[in-house]
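Whiteboard transcription, Tuesday session. T.W. wrote the structure tokens on the left side:
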């Protein structure tokens, strides 16, 4: 098990987290069905309060989550809000019950918290006809020591920015990607295909959910971007990268991404979270270090591995 020490940014081994997020209705939709949340899993603090926008990573990590609801009328808003309220509380409460936390326990509890939110949303949808069919994407990035674990259901994305490059850490769980995986014939123009936005799963739309978890090890100076499809469908990767590496303050970068998505049409709700990681508790920046990530396996974190 790796531990994270310190209560101030000057401590040896400290990992410093700077974070900000913004959600916008866009230029076409009447309601904003997106939600997001940031949580210090050691203290239980939530939201974009000053002590959370710049904090030292505690022993139980930090959570960043984007949820893009769906289901018509106000149902999508309900599903994404349930998710952003339930997941951090469930995860925080369960982590508190453990004396020490290993990487494996941490990931299993992240996954369990999303599965728990799935049950709550599904049961509410089943019990109230007005909410029937509602669900939400969930992309949750959780920093635990130097490891970033990304749990995903749906097609909201997580990117890692390092050395002037951008790497997508998630894989959209869409029908077209499913066709690709099984080797089926794909349409010539994927971007214009009407099935592009059909999800293969979402939180709350069925009794069970398969939470995919990938992980990577972050370095000093790395940044992550979590966003709903209303952002990445509107803004080309090159423009995302230019904004992310512009050196602006995090709130300004978030606003710039929202403004760019709206300038390109703003056809959907737009949500972004940007977090940057620094401090002596992380490996130093290395201009030659690639971004390496893989699907989570308990075998990777067994003692001696």
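and on the right, the sequence the group agreed on:
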């Amino acid at each position: 098990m790796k531990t994270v020490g310190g209560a101030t940014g000057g401590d040896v081994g400290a990992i410093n987290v700077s974070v900000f997020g913004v959600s916008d209705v866009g230029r076409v939709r009447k309601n904003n069905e997106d939600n997001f949340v940031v949580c210090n899993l050691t203290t239980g603090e939530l939201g974009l309060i000053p002590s959370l926008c710049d904090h030292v990573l505690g022993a139980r990590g930090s959570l960043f989550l984007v949820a893009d609801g769906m289901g018509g009328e106000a149902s999508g808003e309900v599903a994404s809000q349930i998710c952003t309220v339930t997941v951090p509380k469930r995860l925080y409460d369960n982590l508190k019950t453990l004396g020490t936390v290993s990487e494996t326990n941490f990931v299993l509890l992240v996954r369990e918290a999303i599965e728990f939110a799935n049950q709550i949303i599904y049961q509410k949808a089943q019990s109230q006809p007005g909410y029937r069919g509602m669900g939400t994407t969930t992309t949750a990035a959780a920093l635990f020591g130097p490891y970033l674990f990304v749990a995903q259901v749906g097609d909201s994305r997580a990117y890692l920015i390092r050395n002037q490059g951008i790497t997508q850490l998630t894989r959209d769980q869409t029908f077209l990607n499913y066709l690709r995986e099984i080797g089926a014939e794909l349409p010539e123009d994927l971007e214009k295909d009407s099935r592009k936005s059909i999800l293969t799963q979402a939180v709350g739309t069925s009794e069970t959910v398969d939470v995919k978890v990938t992980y990577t090890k972050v370095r000093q100076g790395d940044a992550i971007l979590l966003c709903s499809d209303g952002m990445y469908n509107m803004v080309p990767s090159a423009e995302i990268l230019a904004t992310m590496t512009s050196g602006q303050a995090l709130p300004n970068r978030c606003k710039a991404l929202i403004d760019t998505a709206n300038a390109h049409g703003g056809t959907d709700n737009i949500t972004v979270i940007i977090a940057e990681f620094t401090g002596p508790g992380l490996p130093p920046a290395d201009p030659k270090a690639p971004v390496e990530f893989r699907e989570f396996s308990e075998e990777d974190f067994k003692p001696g591995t």
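Someone added at the bottom: The longest strand covers residues 16-24.
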